[in-house]
Here is the input.
Amino acid sequence: MWSALLTSNTQWVLISTMVLGIAAGTIGCLAYWKKQSLMSDSLAHASLPGVIIAYLLFAEKDLYILIAGAAVSALLGAAFIQGIRQTTKITEDTAMGMILSVFYGLGIMLLTIVNRSAGGNQAGLDSFIYGQAAAMVRSDVWTMIILALAAIFFVVIAFKEWKLYLFDPAFAKGIGLSLKGMNILYTLALVTTIVIGIQAVGVILISALLIIPPLSARYWTHSFGAMLFLSALFGGMAGATGTAVSTLGSGWPTGPFIVIFASGFFAVSLVFGKQKGILVNYLQFKKRQKLAQFQQNNNKFKAQGVSK
Amino acid sequence: MSYSAWIILTACLVGATSGLIGVFLILRKMAMMADAISHTVLLGIVIAFLITRELSGPHMLIGAIIAGLVTAFLVQWLHSLNIEQHASMGIVFTTLFAIGVILIATYVGNAHLDVKHALMGEITFIPWETMTLPFLGDVPVATAMLGFAFIIVLFFITAFYKEWKITSFDPALAASLGIPVIVMHYVFMSLVSVTTVAAFDAVGAIMVVAMLITPAAAAYLWTDKLSIMLVISGSFGIISAVLGYFIATWIDTSISGSMALATGILFIISFIFSPKHGLVSKFVKPATAKIMTQDG
Amino acid sequence: MAQPALKVMDLAASYRKNKVLYNVNFEVAAGTLTGVVGPNGAGKSTLIKTLLDLHPALTGHIEFYGLPFKKAKKKIGYVPQRGSVDWDFPTNALDVVTMGLYGNIGWLKRPSRKDKQKAYQSLEKMGMEGFADRQISELSGGQRQRVFLARALVQDADLYFMDEPLAGVDAATEKAIMRILQELKALGKTVLVVHHDLQTVEDYFDHVLLLNKTVIHHGKTENVFTSDKISETYGGNMKWITSREEGYHVVGPSNK
Here is the structure.
């Protein structure tokens, strides 16, 4: 029975979205502490023209080529954002919004041209952009898994360097860590995760997989290592359950279901999380309020005592 | 009026309206909020459709305004729970958007609403669906809605100009002077939602972000005066719309995508040539102004 | 005794789940110039923000000239910390000062020429008239602070709250600001200033409020600003060093 499951396409897709979720949860922690949650959204949108230009150049829907195109385009977007932020008074969020929407616009222009000229091939490209995990074939799955594992490996192997880089860059620099090098590695890992996620989740929602799991993890732990682990766990579970549910109906999109499950885990963490969850906070607040009132009464009592 | 004249007029209205609103979006550091709202508006429209089974202007408008306000409120709420603004925005809009897409896929089926249309916009079809207005005769529905949105935005910005200015620049002072900062915030979010939904049909959810942010950011590089920035930004919006239209007809592609690209072209031109902040001016004369601010 | 300008009872506030202020009680008499002094994290800024309803209070009751905040708004002027606004905002110095009048101008109306004149005069008072149409990003730190003060002056309030107006400004600006504060006091206005520089407290303020999460001491400077009371506020980290030869006091960390 196990082998039957293993050979079915759904099973493969399930594994790939799970690995994707784990990778996104891991890299997302880095983005979270870099305070760049929305950067992933911006770069995901910015990858669109790259995908289509790659397709136009090679006239082929080969995943490696599309991913390479997406990565180049996203990295270009990242460079633009950096450049605008450093040379003008325009703030980072404005720069991100601009790159996101203008690149996306260019992508739509090109896509329209492709759809007009290439006829039959377009359906594949569309599902690549809006996320349709069910449309993935075996080789796509392998590509995704390999790249996702590479990204995870990157983070895990240099765990303590990442930790330093994120929490105390000045100190990291002091002990000889190259911040520029780390920045490049970080951007590469982020872009890799984004572009491999596009096919399964879509350009618009892939950022959710990077943003939501780390946030959920934060409600359970104060340790960076544990946060990384939990975030990967939440991401993986959201990927697997979301994909499983999306296979229940015909034409149900995978990406949105994965996001809904990720948000569900977040909601649970937000309410019940043992670090700063709403419930815990509320109980603490009540306690403090009582204490404040008690102190006040006490003081009044003292004051009366003195005046008498 | 001819077919393409209607399209150009509609595009110009999108450019002008979002150009005006965009100035305050970037000055209030809420550029990404536009991105968030433009996505969640989809959910508002889907729910309005599910309730009324109609895709008419007023229903969509109300649904979108509510969605916009809910987004703003949720982001604020999560932020008040100690989640950073960028993260709370990210979680709110992706979740609401995902719900919207799922509702379309599961309940709405193949009604007149599909995700692709919502994301790309289809300004080409606009002149086909008309309504009759007093004095004006037959006007495309989308154009009428945009005209309405433009008037509302223009009215609110000019009538409460100084209140927008002070609440954007120094909300703490504004509050201490008795100006209702929070009410203004939500009014502003409603205006963003109105603009977004009115532009939705024409340019789609994501390209409206380009129309909102980019002309304003370009205008920011040309002037140090708010009133002039508003005029420039609005004009840039209109220029991008027209430019985009002609690019699109020239190479036969998506008009909304070309409009977004045109805003980017205008920005690059500003980025290079603006007299005060442009690249060229930085080469010609070293930035003396920056040195002056370096004391204390 | 006359109506106090400010009366605070049982005030408590928390910030990001940390309790910053508790059991704060004090009264400020009209016509005084009070320095609010305390270590970092003592809740000085939070105190001012809570008084002005910019930060929620957990408990407490506050009166301005016997009135609640909402009714006393027009009588209150606020000078926030310089870092609290974006100086790249597209506007000029005169415009920023005019903003101080927005509360009085009313809805739907534009600032009149008279309002602009008032704002200009206020800039003149701070010696900033030459910078009226200067874009605010091109002003130095001291000049920015003067613009902020001019904006407070134009409000023509009776009670002023200023958050670190002297932090990081040049000597000329510090002098100009202190001259204005003395002038305000001479006009019978009341001023509360969050201040960080212990050396100058005695010269600048007639009243001192020593704050460390609660009011440690409050009163006339000569009674309150003493060696032991300062140590009490700063938890023993600060010491009163009297330099006999030169005849002035230096306050510094005791572990040095």
Remarks:
- The longest strand of chain B covers residues 130-133.
- Chain B touches chain A through 61 residues (CB under 8 Å).
- Residues 287-296 of chain B have pLDDT under 50 and may be disordered.
- Chain B is about 80% helix and 5% strand.
